[in-house]
Amino acid sequence: MQEYILNQDGAVVKVLHSKVYYVTTHPTKAHAVIFITADGVFEKYMSLAKVEEISLGKLFRCHRKFLVNLSKVMGLKYETKTILFMDERVSDIICSRRYFKTLKERWLNTKGDER
Q1: Which of 23, 32, 48, 86 has a Cα at 20 to 30 A from 55?
Q2: Residue 83: strand pairing partners
């Protein structure tokens, strides 16, 4: 089981990959990303490309500022290219037109045990 070492309010915590919904760039801090998880919001100083690399294909790039865990996706809105999550507390995110077709194919082919 893959884990990420992340920061939250001055503490260092381990978060399992299975708890991650998506990763996004930080809106104000350069070279920082935010992990949105079932347990909360965590920060890490790292590029999105580096997170994508260390996730070993478990996080899918759906936009220049988002990586998504396909096993947490509940549905897709085709008209708005929006990704819907199982947990209502997690905000829906957009997918770029460039990645939407591949996202749809990979999500539909995700095995039940991965969800």
Answers
A1: 86
A2: 76, 93
Domain 3-114 maps to which CATH number in 3.10.20.30, 3.40.50.12500, 2.40.50.1020, 3.30.1240.10? Answer: 2.40.50.1020
Separation of alpha carbons 56 and 30, rounded Å: 24
Angle at 55 between CA 54 and CA 61, to 5 degrees: 110
Query: Which distant-in-sequence residues (6+ apart) come within 8 Å of 56 by Cβ?
Result: 2
Which pTM was predicted?
0.90
**pLDDT tens digits for range 11-21:** 899 999 999 99
Helix (H), strand (E) at residue 76:
strand 73-77
Q: Which of 77, 4, 70, 1 is nearest to 40 (CA)?
A: 4
Beta-strand pair 32-37/40-45: antiparallel
